[in-house]
Specification:
Blueprint lengths: L3 H38 L1 E6 L5 E6 L8 H20 L21 H30 L8 E2 L6 H13 L6 E7 L4 E7 L5 E2 L11 E4 L11 E6 L6 E11 L9 E10 L2 E10 L5 E10 L6
Antiparallel strand pairs: 1-2, 2-12, 3-11, 4-8, 4-10, 5-6, 5-9, 7-8, 9-12, 10-11
C-alpha cells in the first residue's frame, strides 16, 4: 500500500517538474522569436577600416520598429525585468524626507572615498543577484525604444566630447559614452562579445574594453559622463549596452526620472540615442549591435 503522504509528495514533485519544463520552453521560444525579429528588422552597414578591409555593422532594432504584437510581448518582458530587480532587492534606499545632501563643491575627498567603499561593500553583498538581473536583461534582443538622435544634431556629440576631454576619457575603434544632466548616479554596462560585462565593478575586460570614466558615485557633477572604449582593436561579435539607475542623489533639480544621452562609435561611425530611465526601474537594454567580417566582393 502506498502511503498518502508519499503519493502527495510524488505528485508535488512531478507538478513542479512539469512547471519548470514548461517555463523553460516558454522562455526558449521567446528567445527564438526575439532572435528572428532581430534578424528580420536589423540594419546592416559596411564599414571601411584603415587597412582597407571591410566589416559589417549590424544594428539590432528598437522596440518601436517591430509589429504591435511584438511590442506587447516586449512590454511583458520589461515588466518581468522590473519585478525582478525589486524581488532581488537591488534598489538603493532613498535619502530620508528632509535630508539634504551637500553641494558638490563642499564634498571632501574622504567623503568620496567613503562612498566608493560603500559601493564596493554593496556590490560584494549583491553581486550574485546583480549578475542574475544583468543576465536577464542581456537576453533581450530589442532596444528599449529610445529616440535615435538626428545626424545633423551636433549638440549631443559636442557636449559628450567636451565632457570626455574634461575627464580624460579616451577614444577608440569602438566607444560607448553615456551623459546626463543631473547629480544622479547612472551606470553604463556593456556586454562584450566575449561574454564579459564591463561596468563599475569590472572596469577592464579580457577582450580589450575598458571603463575609463565612471562618475557620480558621490554627486560631484551635474554634467557627468561615463565611457567604455576599445582603443585600437575591438573583437567581432555582439555588443549590448545597458543603462542602470544606480542611485538617486537627493539634490535640487535632481529628479527620479533621468534623461540620458548615449553615443556609440564604431570605426568612426557615430550613432546617438536619447532615453529616459526612472529610479527603481530595471536596467535598460538601450541598444545592441554586432561587428562581423564582410564577405569578399566578387565584383
Amino acid at each position: 500500500m502506498v502511503e498518502p503522504v508519499t503519493t502527495l509528495t510524488s505528485l508535488g514533485v512531478g507538478g513542479m517538474g512539469a512547471y519548470l519544463i514548461g517555463r523553460y520552453w516558454q522562455q526558449r521560444n521567446a528567445r527564438l522569436r526575439a532572435l528572428a525579429l532581430a534578424a528580420k528588422y536589423s540594419t546592416t552597414t559596411r564599414i571601411g577600416l584603415h587597412e582597407g578591409s571591410m566589416r559589417l555593422l549590424v544594428n539590432l532594432p528598437q522596440v518601436g520598429e517591430v509589429p504591435s504584437s511584438e511590442r506587447t510581448a516586449w512590454q511583458e518582458r520589461e515588466e518581468r525585468r522590473n519585478r525582478n530587480i525589486m524581488e532581488l532587492d537591488l534598489i538603493q534606499p532613498l535619502a530620508e524626507d528632509g535630508e539634504a545632501e551637500e553641494d558638490a563643491e563642499d564634498l571632501h575627498e574622504d567623503e568620496r572615498l567613503m562612498e566608493l567603499e560603500a559601493r564596493s561593500t554593496w556590490i560584494e553583498n549583491n553581486e550574485p543577484p546583480m549578475n542574475t538581473h544583468a543576465a536577464l536583461v542581456a537576453e533581450e534582443q530589442l532596444g528599449s525604444g529610445v529616440v535615435v538622435a538626428e545626424p545633423e544634431s551636433e549638440s549631443v556629440e559636442v557636449n559628450i566630447d567636451e565632457r570626455l576631454e574634461r575627464e580624460g576619457g579616451a577614444s577608440g575603434v569602438v566607444q560607448v559614452s553615456l551623459a546626463w544632466d543631473d547629480y544622479n548616479d547612472l551606470d553604463l554596462h556593456v556586454f562584450c562579445p566575449s561574454g564579459e560585462r564591463i561596468y563599475f565593478n569590472n572596469k577592464t575586460s579580457d577582450c580589450g574594453g575598458e571603463l575609463d570614466v565612471d562618475m557620480n558615485v558621490r554627486p560631484v557633477s551635474n554634467t557627468p559622463v561615463e565611457n567604455v572604449v576599445w582603443k585600437e582593436q575591438a573583437p567581432l561579435g555582439a555588443y549590448k549596452i545597458g543603462v542602470h539607475f544606480y542611485k538617486h542623489h537627493k539634490k535640487r533639480r535632481t529628479k527620479r526620472l533621468c534623461t540620458y544621452r548615449l553615443r556609440v562609435v564604431t570605426h568612426g561611425r557615430s550613432k546617438e540615442y536619447i532615453g529616459k530611465i526612472r529610479y527603481g526601474q530595471a536596467m535598460q537594454m538601450v541598444t545592441s549591435f554586432s561587428l562581423e567580417e564582410a564577405p569578399h566582393s566578387t565584383a
